[in-house]
Structures are given as C-alpha cells and as structure tokens.
Amino acid sequence: MKNELKFEVALSKLEEIVQKLESGDLSLEDSLKVFEEGVTLSRNCAKILHDAEKRVTRLTAPKEGEDPAMPEKEIQAERPLQIEEDSEEAPE
Question: Are 69 and 25 within 8 A, CB to CB?
Fold first, then answer.
C-alpha cells in the first residue's frame, strides 16, 4: 500500500483533531500544528473520495455501443463478467 492513510483512519484522526481544537486546551502554536495536520488529512480524505467517485463513474458508465437507457440487469445479461484489475491498488 502507498504511504497514504486509509479513508476511515484518516477520517477518525480528523475527528480527533476537531475535538482537540474545539476543547480550547491547546496553545496557539499547538493549535496551528494540529490544524495543519487536519488540513492535510482533510485533503487526503477529499482525494480518496474523488478517486472513489471516478472509479464508480467508470464502472457504471455504459460500454461502447450500449444503450445508456438500458436497465443494468439487461446490460449484465448481454455482456460477460469482466474483472478489471487496478495496478495502482494492491489489497492488503
């Protein structure tokens, strides 16, 4: 796996950061450091969501020559199951 955090882990850490900042117990300098970490995590989460949305769009887009108005059950019946491997993502 890449050095990126999984979405769920990053989101959990981001929630912890929000709690720390909302508590008001941090100094200004510590607040800025924690905020900076939160911005990085937020951008990471946004990228993961964007990539997931692109995958869903690609997977649900009609293949060339298919009628986009055709129900998915009929599309599946007309074409054999194709498993696409994404070379960038390896299962853990």
Answer: no
Max distance between CA atoms of the chain, in angstroms, equals 63
For the CA atoms of 52, 53, 58, 61, the dihedral, rounded to the nearest 10 degrees, stands at: 150
Token digits of residue 22: 């909302």
Helix (H) or strand (E) holding 39: helix 28-60
- How far is the C-alpha of 33 from the C-alpha of 8, rounded, in Å? 22
pLDDT digits (tens, 9 = 90+) for 38-48: 999 999 999 99
Query: CA-CA distance, 89 to 71, in Å (whole number)?
Result: 30
Give residue 46's Cα distance to chain centre. Answer: 7
Instruction: Note the pTM of the prediction, 2 decimals.
Output: 0.60
